[in-house]
Specification:
Layout (H helix, E strand, L loop, with lengths): L12 H14 L1 H10 L6 H27 L1 E4 L3 E6 L5 E6 L5 E6 L1 H6 L2 E6 L8 E7 L1 H20 L3 H6 L12 E6 L2 H9 L7 H13 L5 H13 L2 H27 L3 E5 L2 E6 L4 E7 L3 E8 L1 H5 L2 E8 L10 E9 H11 L10 E2 L2 H9 L3 H13 L6 H19 L1 E5 L2 E7 L3 E7 L3 E7 L2 H6 L1 E9 L3 E10 H12 L3 H5 L4
Antiparallel strand pairs: 1-2, 2-3, 4-5, 4-10, 5-6, 7-8, 8-9, 9-10, 11-12, 11-17, 12-13, 14-15, 15-16, 16-17, 18-19, 19-20
């Protein structure tokens, strides 16, 4: 690498301030414990511990300083070069044409100091598949994204770097890729999602944890006795109003969290890529190339199904470390009809079917006959240790049996042309759609009980960041055999156009 032939750039000095603040944050708890709450310099052991903490803090700050000082990056027409390292320098290069997407992240401190974190992703699964610029000015981030847009433009038009230099059109003259807004969350949708989320009940375990932590330092037995006396002597109306008030506070907290997380949510299409932007305090943006989309999932929780609210995720091949969850959410909570409208209009390479096949009636029998080990274990424990509360087992078994009946009613499937579409679940339901070229493998399993009923379990694997597996239980064996036969009959054209 010839450094003199390139224009090298450093990260802004304020990035060093961010890294030092992150170091101090990581040492905040031991510093508070040892220097504020228990500032004991009399014992030798206490002095050694405190001096050791200060030395580690200083060493970490020095390491961050040299990491910032040594980091440099440069670009030419074909490659991005990076020099990094704390004590030992490491050089690496990445061809620009391999960069599939750019992900930006702006936590609150980054936005406060006016910098953006960029991650360039090749969608490969190696350690060097991506690299970060952990803090650049927005103007520099925009310049880098424009350079990558020009590279993509040349790649899609089949123009090499040499050809572009010989032609009249220079990279700076390349037309920018237009951005099209596909969906933006409204305030009403965020409020409704907060109300219909089960997180409204999270205040009870959180409050219990906080009270338990406070009780370790301050004796709250007296306060607990007063609360107990109030609950015992209070009327049902007063207790009901108290519970409603706590739930309302929980809903308000959930709204604040959702607004901070999903405020200014935008789903856009930029050329052949999907871009998702979200967040108020911590602003983030990620991109997914269309060609990397392997499947689409639609998730419906039990409560949100009543309001026809769904979440939409994409299963994308070769996701980077920060997106190791095999799916990426593009619509967190949207009415089902609006979600299907977006999918049908802007994801036209996936065809949704409105008519799906139900499971045969014998599938309900096999679901009810399966042993619920969870139910039997809980029943045994209750009957042995808490016999006075045995009537609660009726509710437990009603939920178990009701869930299996719901699973039978909900589970549907269809195989139409090149596409497989599944709908599975009981209380929480999810739909899955992919096509034959994107399926990695199909497995058919059959237990002894299923064999007697002529049913099978089928697993579909697609290529996400990890191997993504979808399962449908208790479909007829003849249909499972037909799926295997359908998948095994590839044509030459299908093999050549396999995506990802």
């Amino acid at each position: 690498m010839t450094e003199t032939a390139l224009t090298w750039h450093r990260l802004p000095s304020r990035v060093l301030v961010l890294r030092i603040l992150e170091v101090i944050k990581s040492f905040a708890i031991p510093i508070v414990l040892l220097f504020v709450l228990n500032n004991d310099w009399d014992s030798t052991f206490g002095i050694i511990i405190r001096v050791g903490i200060l030395l580690f803090l200083l060493l970490d700050i020095v390491q961050k300083f040299f990491g910032w000082l040594n980091f440099r990056y440069a670009l030419d027409e074909k490659t991005v070069y990076v020099i990094e390292g704390n004590w030992l320098k490491k050089e690496k290069s990445l061809p620009l044409y391999k960069i599939q997407s750019v992900h930006s992240n702006s936590p609150f401190l980054y936005r406060l100091l006016g910098v953006v974190e960029l991650t360039f992703d090749t969608n490969a699964n190696s350690d060097d598949a991506s690299f970060k610029l952990a803090g650049v000015f927005p103007t520099e981030a925009k310049r880098l994204e424009e350079i990558l847009e020009q590279v993509r433009h040349r790649k899609q038009s089949g123009v090499t770097v040499d050809d572009s230099e010989e032609s009249d059109e220079t990279p700076a003259q390349a037309a920018p890729v237009p951005s099209r807004l596909l969906y933006a969350l409204s305030t009403r949708e965020i409020v409704l999602a907060s109300i219909t989320s089960l997180s409204v009940f999270a205040i009870f375990p959180v409050a219990s944890t906080v009270i338990s932590s406070i009780d370790d330092f301050i004796n709250l037995d007296g306060a607990f006795n007063q609360v107990e006396d109030y609950v015992v002597h209070a009327s049902i109306i007063a207790i009901g109003l108290l519970v409603i008030g706590v739930l309302m506070v929980s809903i308000v907290i959930g709204m604040v969290i959702n607004f901070l997380k999903y405020g200014n949510f935008r789903l856009e299409r930029r050329g052949e890529r999907i871009r998702v932007e979200k967040g108020l305090l911590n602003r983030s943006a990620k991109e997914i190339p269309y060609e990397k989309i392997q499947a689409i999932r639609i998730k419906e929780t039990f409560i949100r199904r009543w309001f026809h609210i769904v979440g939409v995720e994409l299963v994308a091949a070769g996701t980077m470390d920060e997106l190791k969850d095999e799916s990426s959410t593009i619509l967190p909570f949207v009415r089902r009809d609006r979600a299907m409208q977006v999918l049908r209009e802007h994801f036209t390479h996936f065809t949704w079917s409105d008519e799906l096949h139900r499971l045969p009636r014998r599938a309900l029998g096999i679901k009810l006959l399966r042993i619920s080990w969870f139910g039997f274990i809980i029943s045994g424990l209750v009957l042995y240790f808490f016999r006075d509360y045995a009537w609660w087992l009726l509710l437990l078994w009603a939920i178990i049996i009701g869930g299996r009946v719901l699973s039978f009613v909900t589970t549907k499937y269809v195989r139409a042309d090149q596409f497989i579409q599944l709908r599975t679940g009981a209380f929480n339901v999810r739909s899955f759609l992919t096509d034959k070229p994107r399926i990695e493998q199909i497995q058919v399993k059959q237990s002894l009980l299923q064999r007697r009923f002529g049913l099978c379990t089928v697993q579909f694997s697609t290529r996400g960041g990890f191997l993504s597996v979808e399962t449908i239980d208790d479909i007829p064996k003849e249909e499972a055999d037909a799926m295997l036969n359908w998948f095994s009959r590839y044509t030459v054209q299908e093999d050549m156009k396999t995506p990802g």
